């Protein structure tokens, strides 16, 4: 893979390294107990608890296209979380560049990824990690960054996202060469579509950290929101 951490790649951390402050709206239900099982309350998300017992992994909803990685597999794709694979750090923890393919697991599509590792001593904990898995695992839209997989092994909590090659919109707005207005309008429309998907989901999501640093661009400057 060569050395990671180029200027383009470092911009990705602006979105991937930040905690995703997602709150699920409580839905009315005739059965309060059943509703409690399937709806994340604000108290569940905001409590900065440390990682819990591995049995809590049973609370992860099952999604057909979200992969449950082993810690060994993620160590493999990040070369044991090498320093030169670091994209950046944030409130959640450290983000590493990685690459999954059939050498990691038979049948995996070759794909560059961003691996976010929960800081065990940080302010975010298992509840935030679990919320992110269950929120983003159920959402699939062209304008939302895709959650590829996760790892819940012992006290390790990791998230695996698709890697966005062009970094954040913020990184492009303040360059010497400005983005053409047509491109800006296209990005704005894509970001709006991503937000609309969150708001209109079966379990609506309030995204409280929407800003240019959290709008990511692929190799063709196609907008995706995280």
TrEMBL record:
Keywords of the record: ATP-binding, Kinase, Nucleotide-binding, Serine/threonine-protein kinase, Transferase
Residues reported to bind ATP: 116
Biased composition annotated in UniProt, kind: Polar residues: 40-49
Family annotation (Gene3D superfamilies): Phosphorylase Kinase, domain 1 (3.30.200.20), Transferase(Phosphotransferase) domain 1 (1.10.510.10)
A Gene Ontology molecular function term of the record: protein serine/threonine kinase activity
Enzyme Commission numbers on file: 2.7.11.1
Domain of life: Eukaryota
Protein name, entry field: non-specific serine/threonine protein kinase
Chain residue ranges for the region called Disordered: 30-52
Domain Protein kinase: 81-226
Family the entry assigns: Belongs to the protein kinase superfamily.
InterPro entries xrefs: Kinase-like_dom_sf (IPR011009), Plant_Ser_Thr_Prot_Kinase (IPR050823), Prot_kinase_dom (IPR000719), Protein_kinase_ATP_BS (IPR017441), Ser-Thr/Tyr_kinase_cat_dom (IPR001245), Ser/Thr_kinase_AS (IPR008271)
First-level EC class: transferase
């Amino acid at each position: 893979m060569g050395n990671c951490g180029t200027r383009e790649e470092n911009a990705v951390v602006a979105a991937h390294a930040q905690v995703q402050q997602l709150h699920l709206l409580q839905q009315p239900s005739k059965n309060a107990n059943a509703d409690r099982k399937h709806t994340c309350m604000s108290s569940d998300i905001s409590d900065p608890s440390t990682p819990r017992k591995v049995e809590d992994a049973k609370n992860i909803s099952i999604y057909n296209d979200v992969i449950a990685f082993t810690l060994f597999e993620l160590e493999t794709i990040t070369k044991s979380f090498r320093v030169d694979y670091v994209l950046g750090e944030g409130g959640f923890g450290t983000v590493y560049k990685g690459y999954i393919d059939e050498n990691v697991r038979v049948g995996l599509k070759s794909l560059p990824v961003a691996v976010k590792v929960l800081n065990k001593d940080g302010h975010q904990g298992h509840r935030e990690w679990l919320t992110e898995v269950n929120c983003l695992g159920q959402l699939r839209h062209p304008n939302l960054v895709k959650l590829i997989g996760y790892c819940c092994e012992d006290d390790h909590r990791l998230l695996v996202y698709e890697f966005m090659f062009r970094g954040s919109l913020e990184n492009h707005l303040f360059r010497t060469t400005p983005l053409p207005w047509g491109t800006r309008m296209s990005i704005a429309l894509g970001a709006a579509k991503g937000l609309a998907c969150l708001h209109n989901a079966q379990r609506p999501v309030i995204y409280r950290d929407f800003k240019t640093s959290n709008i990511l661009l692929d190799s063709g400057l196609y907008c995706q929101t995280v």
